[in-house]
Amino acid sequence: MASQESQGQAKLIFKDYLPGSSDTPQQNTPVEPASLWKQTSHTHNLPPGLEYLNQLDQIIIHQQVDLLEAILGTETSSKYEIKNPLGQRVYFAVEENGCFDRRLCSPLRAFTISIADNAGREVIRVIRPLRCTSCCFPCFLQELEVQSPPGTVAGYVVQNWDPFLPKFTIQNESKEDVLKIIGPCATCGCFEDVDFEVKALDEMTTIGKISKYWSGFVNNVFTNTANFGIQVPVDLDVRIKAVMIGACFLIDLMFFENSLDGL
């Protein structure tokens, strides 16, 4: 009888251990609060229009080529197609700002990017105020707000001061830190992709990445078109996936806006 009780207690003790683990968990070991970024909502509770993101672990962002910009060298409003891994368009994004902002402020410009689904319904809004990117102004670095649906905050992208590396923090709607994004020291990427790693808050565990794909010499010299890939866990909260799309736009403007970047 005592043996059965001890076996029952053992089952209760070990029922929450990871399957296949041969090591007993250590007491007082800090655990990464994965619940902050993992999907907890049921499909019917997701923001309208984001249900499709619930199935994706890879998102492709392709900037459309503007012939006027390519021929005349003028800066026009950016337009993007957001696709699934099969190349099928899921969303369409358009930057909204004035010609004055684009010509005068260029990569520093404030913008609003409206992201619509294939039915033309706006499902995500990305808002970037005019702020600094220089490490000389650590109190006024980049901060981007992502709304989904428009008018409801889904999360934030906040630039972190670092003298050597591009660093950002992904925050949820309550401004709680959720994930980190850390880029390479050099983002020029000579004839190769440039990866920004998505990491847990301890900056030790990599769970995904945002990649700027090298798209060829002619494309990069004569246009500013960008091709990005976002790889994240499939169970990442769809709101955080929407914030990752916003982070991709911010990274594009901060590091790859000039036509010769990415060669």
CATH superfamily assignment?
LURP1-related
Strand content: 25-35%
User: How much helical structure, as a percent, in the residues?
Assistant: 10-25%
Principal-axis shape: globular
Uncertain parts:
5-32, 217-224, 259-263
Radius of gyration: 21 Å
Reported by name, the CATH topology is Porin
- CATH-level-2 architecture: Beta Barrel
How many strands in all?
Answer: 12
Distance between the termini: 73 Å
Describe the main β-sheet briefly. Answer: 12 strands, antiparallel, barrel
User: SSE order, as H and E?
Assistant: HEHEEHEEEEEEEEHEH
How many domain regions? 1
Please work out how many helical segments DSSP would assign.
Answer: 5
CATH class: Mainly Beta
Rounded mean pLDDT is: 75
Give the strand order of the largest sheet, numbering strands 1, 2, ... along the chain. 1-2-3-4-5-6-7-8-9-10-11-12
Q: Tell me the structural class.
A: alpha+beta
Describe this structure in words.
With 263 residues, the protein is of the alpha+beta class. The protein has one domain (1-11, 47-259): Porin (Beta Barrel), CATH 2.40.160.200. The protein is 19% helix and 29% strand. It has 5 helices and 12 strands. It has a 12-stranded antiparallel β-barrel with strand order 1-2-3-4-5-6-7-8-9-10-11-12. A hairpin with a 5-residue loop joins strand 2 and strand 3. The N and C termini lie far apart (73 Å). Belongs to the phospholipid scramblase family. May mediate accelerated ATP-independent bidirectional transbilayer migration of phospholipids upon binding calcium ions that results in a loss of phospholipid asymmetry in the plasma membrane. This is Phospholipid scramblase. InterPro entries: Scramblase.
